[in-house]
Amino acid sequence: MSKIGWGLVLLVRAITLGRWVLTRNAVPARAYSTGRRRTSVLLSNNTPNTLAFRQFLLRRYCCKNQVEDEEMSATKREPAAEQLTEYKKYSKGERPVLLTGNGAPIAEKKASLTVGPHGPILLQDFVYLDEISHFNRERIPERVVHAKGAGAFGYFEVTHDITRYCKAKVFSSIGKRTPIAVRFSTVGGESGSPDTARDPRGFAVKFYTEEGIWDLVGNNTPIFFIKDPLFFPSFIHTQKRNPVTHLKDADMFWDFLSLRPETTHQVMILFSDRGIPDGYRHMNGYGSHTFKLVNSSNEIIYCKFHYKTDQGIKNIFSDKAAEISSSDPDYSIRDLYNAIATSNYPTWTFYIQVMTASQAKNFRWNPFDVTKVWPHDEYPLMPVGKLVLDRNPDNYFNDVEQIAFDPAHMVPGIEPSPDKLLQGRLFAYGDTHRHRLGPNHLQLPVNCPYKAITAMNYQRDGDMNINNQNGAPNYYPNSFGGPLECPAVRSPSFSVSGDVDRYEPQNEDDFGQPTLFWRRVLNADEKTRLVDNIVSSLKNASTFIIERAVKNFTEVDADLGKRLTDGLRKAGVQI
Known about the structure:
- The structure is a single chain.
- The protein has helices at 3-24, 26-30, 50-62, 64-74, 83-90, 126-135, 232-239, 250-259, 264-270, 318-327, 331-341, 357-361, 396-401, 420-436, 512-521, 524-538, 543-556, 558-570, and strands spanning 149-158, 177-186, 201-209, 212-219, 285-286, 291-294, 300-309, 347-355, 382-391, 414-416.
- With 575 residues, it is of the alpha+beta class.
């Protein structure tokens, strides 16, 4: 039979099926009758909706299960997908009047104001100009690091007394709760990058205490790549894109790491299973640096902060991470939002390690070196409290993009240590927030101190100031009721000595702790995956860089060096 013949047969069968369906659905068709003549809308040839209704009935018959499945699935969407539905439900169907930026009601927003239907737009079309000029300024600079992130709110609850170490009121009594905000993030990627990249994770906590804001700005690892902040800009450049090709560059990445052996410890953690946590709920957090605690007697003790996930550690292997990055690049953000929305609140147990000043002075390595951990058998973890996240952001831009964490934000009883990298961060974070958000970013609600005080200081004016402290004096000292000092929170004095110079670390053991990590922490399967992960990245670098990196790993353990050499050769690298 010819193609035309087959086409006619199919057409006749389709028409027959359509008529049979219409007959079968005669009852619903009669429901659409037009009145006295009982002429069905379904059968009326001059009714525009006839074809659409026929198609609807045909689909209901032929695709009944599909339609029902779609209707059912619509009721089972994840909480993140239901955000707009929830907004509509809570608004109770009341829709506000649409306004311009200056609060004037808008009569028509379906078309621009033009000369005739095809004519040019008038300059007096303020509705358009107001909209587009604001749109042109919606984006602010993304964070130079930690650009992609998720946030949530909750509280910190004290469960154990540490007032013998610290006078900060956040720890003042068992059972005390302090509001917190937390931001999780990746480090090197842009704001649209996948959540499952092999990358450290930021874990920053903002405590809204009655003494002011305390920001504990850490990561999901207890250490960092470098110990001197002078290297930080260069290090981050190597984690970003080549300035010519705008591509991630293996030579940049591995050249820096192999030239700075102190990075080895963090690099091994990064390329282990821990390098890709399964979302933000299943990873630990650390203050990373050494801090100084001060008690009510002005006695000091050094401290490290830890927060261990109560959900259990879970990681994602490389192949699965690659799959997720293509199907759901916002995996970690979605997981956190949905967990909180379904009242599956994530929690972390908060611990400290403490070291006396005399112990620090006599310790066998620099206790303020952020590339090393304090041994837990010598300085055990002491429980302090719980971090609980039980509320999602009301608006991502306001609550997450504009939240500003600053390691310099401490409260009485918590002070910086001589940790060089911490010292460098004390300035850098506030400076970048002033660039991104403006000089008055601490007046934004998410960054504003929990305790409202009318006249807090002598800082005035500046871009976007919304609380200029009214008529309070703007100079110090003054005789007119301006704020005064609080001698009760004076920090204890401390002594420093030494010659001013630029000191490159000498004879420091950069491989001892990586060796312990390889030999005592990782099991056989984890070692194999660590080697495979390093090989998959390192093989893309220049040969001389590869050889230098392998030499560093051989210093960690000869077996590690041999495995890497064998793996690289199998990958086609001639070394």
